[in-house]
Amino acid sequence: MAKTFTRRQVLKYAAVSGIGGLIAANLPIVARAAQPITTKGAQAQELSLAQSIAQAATAFLDTLNPDQRAKASYDFSNNERFRWHWTMPSGFPRNGLPLREMDDAQKALAFALLSSSLSEYGYQKSLDIMSLQNDLGNDPQLYFVTVFGTVGDPAGWGWRWEGHHLSRHYTIVGEKIEVTPFFHGSWPTTSDAGLRAMPREEDAALELVNSLPDDLRNKAIFQGNTLTNHITSNNPRVTPLGQVGVPYGELNADQQKLVVEIMQAYLNVLPEALAETHYQRVIDGGLEQVLFAWAGSLEHRRPQYYRLQGANFVMEFDNSRNRGTHIHSVWREFDNDFGYNLLKA
Fold first, then answer.
1. Is residue 329 a contact partner of residue 201, using CB atoms and an 8 Å limit?
2. Residue spans per domain, the chain
3. Rama region for 46: left / alpha / beta (φ>0; ψ in -120 to 50; rest)
4. CA distance 316 to 27
5. pLDDT digits (tens, 9 = 90+) for 155-187
6. What pTM, to 2 d.p., does this model score?
7. Which end of the chain is more exposed for a tag (fewer CB within 10 A), N or C?
8. In whole angstroms, what is the distance from residue 229 CA to residue 318 CA?
9. How far is CA 272 from CA 67, 108, 120, 278, in A?
10. CA-CA distance, 261 to 5, in Å (whole number)?
11. pLDDT tens-place string over residues 114-135
12. Contact 196, 16 (CB under 8 A)
């Protein structure tokens, strides 16, 4: 994967900017120290990512009483697996077991499951998004854990972590893992304590569109007014959107680096192997043809929308609400969401 900066540099940036130390007090303290479940002693072995996630999921489920387990568990074939949203649970009731209904030991294992499924950077970003619920007067423990199918079933199983502005989906077939759709949101974009949960997703795109010469900027901007939401919404399956925008291949080297940085801001939340896989798919689909498209204001903290779209994916970023201080953003893959590619006959 050709990177413009390393994962170590990303984490250093996060620490310097204060992202790492601004977890709100109302978030369960067990979230801060959660680690993936690992095998110890003479039986220690190097586990694959799929095995590590399965082990963490089993450890979590084994602590639940029958009522809790019934809430947290669905058949893998149940349509609940495709039912998802980013809004507050009061507006779109979630199914699964909420953190609010777990004891501390169960919460620790739930967060360990989340940690096992993300990079360190991605885990911290999830906690930051959750902590912003305190700024809104929401309950930061209304995030729901749901397991689909029998953990470790080679024919397919999965799990989900979801609540306001954070929706993470994992479909696992054998050793293969799919993670889309995945959704991140941030409201406010900057908290009272100065936390920015999604800084480069916002700033790198503004730097890019404002760096374009007039001819390319006119090509990138497909309408003057921002959109009011991301187009793909919470549809269980999506197809390519309109072919608008300026291709990566028409940008100069510095502008291309900004496109890659935007993609990295999303993909680096994943464990490195999965980030590599997703970026390679972008390359295989034709990086030169990836389109950068814009709508709305070119100024910071003003309503705006942009997207990156390639042959096999679309990434949408919408910051239309609350005068440009309320982000909705999603990564979708046309053939791979919810593991469609892994489950084809």
1. yes
2. 7-186, 199-343
3. beta
4. 28
5. 999 999 999 999 999 999 999 999 999 999 999
6. 0.88
7. C
8. 6
9. 36, 23, 10, 10
10. 8
11. 999 999 999 999 999 999 999 9
12. no
